[in-house]
Design brief:
heterodimer, A: 70 residues, mainly alpha, 5 helices, 54% helix, B: 148 residues, 78% helix
Amino acid sequence: MAPTSIKNNMRRLRFDANEMTQQTLAEHVGVTRQTIIAIEAAKYSPSLELAFKIADVFSVPFEKVFQYKA
Amino acid sequence: MSTTEKSLLASLVITLLVFGNFFLNTLELALADEPIANISTSLINVVISVIILEIIVQSLLASLSSSQGDDERDLLIERISFRNGYVCLSVGIWIWIGHTTIPSWWVWLDAIQSPLPEALVPVVLLLLFVIAEVTVTVTRLFYYRRGF
């Protein structure tokens, strides 16, 4: 699958959040670790709901996590 | 490799081995106009064998690893896979309808008798379903392996 147009700072944000693991983030937002891996690698665009949940876990605005690159 | 991938791989291996063996043995018999009762019995046996094998293997896999359930990405992959499987099944059914209704189109293919021998009908139907099922499993494995 080709990379998506949605870039993200999840890796950086996880690092800043006491090096949160992918598994922990996955459990917080209710998805599998494989889905977090796919989102971080920009191979999968999450639903709006999941994207907001991820931003909520890091307590940052949505646009700090995800950016659209046309 | 995730639990889902292991489960899909196990399913694919079981399907290919059991049904592959069945089709290799049965197609020949069906083409030779074997009584349909014999074919039906082995068809029911093979379906039951696959169900039992699937239950055993999937239960073992589930007990060895903790499944996290499906999330939105799993469901998206599943939808795409079922669409591909449906396309395969539809193509097969349309070819069969064409073969049944317009036999003159198939005269160039000597190997296919028209109409099909009675005993071959359930075998071909099962073959179409198995091809669709394999397509679904292979598509899911492809997206899980390559990333989605």
